[in-house]
Amino acid sequence: MNFKKNISQLIISAALLSTHVYSHENDDPLLASLLIDKLEQHSNSTTLEAQAWVGKDLNKFWLKTDVENDKGDTEHAEIQALYSHAVAPFWNLQTGIRQDVKPSPTKTWGVIGIQGIAPYFFDVDAALFIGESGRTAARISAEYDLLFTQRLILSPEVEINLYGQNDAETATGARLSTMNGGIRLRYEIYREFAPYVGINWNKKFGNTADFARHKNETIEDAKWVIGLRAWF
Question: At a CB cut-off of 8 Å and minimum separation 6, what does 97 contact?
């Protein structure tokens, strides 16, 4: 009698365990997302900033890309391939590789960074880059969405780039190199589809500015842009 009772208890326990595991797997499905953060035009120049990920709740594989084209020539092209692990609510630790395709010569960097939502809903992306021959760089960006209505949204943002060494080949100087700021007003026709207009400001500092002066390039500029933000 005890034997039959024990068998019955084991069967019930196994059934409950199977149900728990099955539910747990369904609670953490494999998902994917693509965000075209900026696809914008100014005069003869085009900028694309996009990122995509695939994975589960805690672990994901990310791709990030940033491309700038001027008069048909690609002036800047960068892609990052990252493994992302959630370390806190709304925060992910990311590690991987960054490949600079343009400007020449191409460069490869190791990446360690953190991405998430800071207090007051600032979107923050900060990364440290380690390259060949001990080269180092860092990038910090922050963006905030100010809702006028559920569809009309103003987004100010800022990005700072720093380098550990001078690099004459790519015309980047040590310490604070560039700062980019922008403000964009978008209208979400659908939540996933939003055209926008805005103004973008760029400035070079220190040795990066000196490299630009030697090439008779501008140190600071501001320009109006029109673009599209979409996600899938």
Answer: 80, 81, 82, 108, 109, 110, 111
Can you tell me whether residue 5 is helix, strand or coil? helix
DSSP 108-121: EEEEEEEEEEEGGG
Element (DSSP H or E) covering residue 3 = helix 2-27
Cβ neighbours for 89, distance < 8 A, ≥ 6 positions apart: none
Global confidence as pTM: 0.83
| C-alpha radius of gyration, the chain, whole number | 23
Q: Is 92 in contact with 55 (CB distance < 8 Å)?
A: no
Q: Which residues contact 136 (CB under 8 A, 6 or more apart)?
A: 128, 129, 130, 163, 164, 165
pLDDT in tens, 189-225: 999 999 999 999 999 999 999 999 998 989 999 999 9
Distance CA 207, CA 168 (A): 10
74-118 tens-digit pLDDT: 989 999 999 999 999 999 999 999 999 988 889 999 999 999 999
Give 44's DSSP letter.
Answer: T
Other CB atoms within 10 A of residue 11 CB: 10
The number of residues making up the chain comes to 232
Q: Residue with structure tokens 């075209």? A: 36
**Which residue in 138, 136, 140 sits closest to 162, CA to CA?**
138
d(CA 78, CA 71): 18
Whether the pLDDT of residue 231 is over 80: the answer is: yes
| Residues in contact with 99: Cβ distance below 8 Å, sequence separation at least 6, in sequence order | 78, 79, 80, 106, 107, 108, 109
Look up the CATH number of domain 2-231: 2.40.160.40
